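Structure first, sequence second, as always.
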């Protein structure tokens, strides 16, 4: 029996990874991976007159009378609403966390809205109300903002831009370049929940139980950590959003020219997240989080910091997941449950685009 030949048009072929030699922006350039880093280092920093330096979520500025931290972020998540939250509280909490991971206590936020013509006012009102409630709960007011409306098809419903200002207490010096050999690596709780929550709604997948975003403000947790062991105990903080845990530890390893050794068996991954990632072919260590942080802590203070984290509502599941080593500077490796060791590296782009 003969078969009818199938006609294949090479123009329909799709490369599974974005090509790095391109003259156009790719979706992967916004994913927090290698392409994002190259875009920033090779295009934006030279244009702004800066040199490539340690990757930070916020800048610490000296005012003459003290130090402030300044950050800005934009949120383009789809869908706008997902289990446990929406783009509004995500924007508030994400901006607060960028400040917190510089050791700053936030004092004010801004909010800018780019609204697509035709968006229902009820939807916009629900987002704004959620932002107000999240800011009030965190004790960080939204003090100014801006609104723009673009034509239909110009904004995919709603984009939110935020900025935040915080005060850095005396003696606090937190940054990715400060990680040192011997530092203990601690994560504040279960990872991967936010990315899986987004995917469950976006793709209409039922995992048997609802996975909710972990979105939460972390400035009070950071304050408790610093109070427990002194401001010099915590060397580095990072909230593992785009690119997940892997992107955070690799960026820190590179910034400090140290090696990071993770223990995969110690990393808290909820069973629901592990099952969902297995089903979707994703690595939970590279799935985004919005209410967790990774801390690099001086070894002599690690127990005190871990105890303070576990005593705080936002850190009850905190766990030691690795150490900083002198070997393989600029690289992160993971010891698997089978006793082998593998190199962990960031994706070129992002496993799950538009999750924040």
């Amino acid at each position: 029996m003969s078969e009818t030949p199938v006609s294949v048009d090479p123009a329909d072929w799709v490369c599974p990874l974005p090509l790095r030699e391109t003259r156009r922006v790719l979706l992967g350039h916004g994913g927090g991976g290698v392409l994002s880093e190259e875009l920033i280092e090779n295009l934006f920093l030279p244009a702004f007159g800066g040199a490539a330096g340690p990757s930070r979520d916020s800048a610490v500025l000296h005012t003459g009378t003290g130090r402030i931290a300044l950050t800005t972020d934009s949120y383009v998540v789809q869908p706008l609403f997902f289990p446990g939250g929406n783009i509004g509280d995500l924007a508030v909490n994400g901006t607060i966390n960028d400040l917190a991971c510089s050791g700053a206590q936030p004092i004010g936020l801004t909010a800018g809205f780019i609204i697509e013509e035709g968006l229902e006012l009820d939807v916009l009102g629900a987002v704004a109300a959620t932002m107000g409630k999240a800011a009030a709960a965190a004790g960080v007011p939204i003090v100014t903002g801006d609104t723009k409306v673009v034509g239909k098809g110009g904004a995919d419903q709603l984009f939110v831009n935020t900025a935040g200002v915080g005060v850095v207490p005396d003696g606090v010096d937190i940054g990715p370049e400060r990680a040192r050999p011997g530092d203990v690596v601690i994560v504040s709780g279960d990872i991967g929940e936010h990315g899986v929550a987004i995917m469950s709604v976006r793709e209409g997948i039922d995992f048997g139980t609802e996975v909710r975003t972990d979105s939460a403000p972390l400035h009070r947790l950071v304050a408790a950590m610093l109070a427990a062991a002194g401001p010099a105990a915590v060397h580095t903080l990072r909230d593992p959003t785009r690119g997940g845990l892997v992107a955070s530890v690799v960026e820190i390893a590179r910034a400090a020219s140290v090696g990071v050794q993770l223990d995969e068996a110690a990393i808290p991954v909820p069973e629901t997240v592990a099952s969902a990632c297995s089903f979707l072919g994703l690595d939970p260590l590279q799935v985004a989080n919005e209410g967790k942080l990774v801390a690099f802590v001086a070894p002599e203070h690690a127990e005190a910091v871990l105890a303070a984290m576990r005593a705080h509502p936002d850190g009850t599941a905190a766990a030691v997941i690795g150490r900083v080593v002198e070997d393989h500077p600029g690289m992160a490796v993971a010891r698997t449950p089978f006793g082998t060791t593998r190199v962990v590296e960031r994706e070129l782009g992002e496993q799950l685009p538009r999750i924040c």
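Margin note: Confidence is low (pLDDT under 50) at residues 1-8, 10-19.
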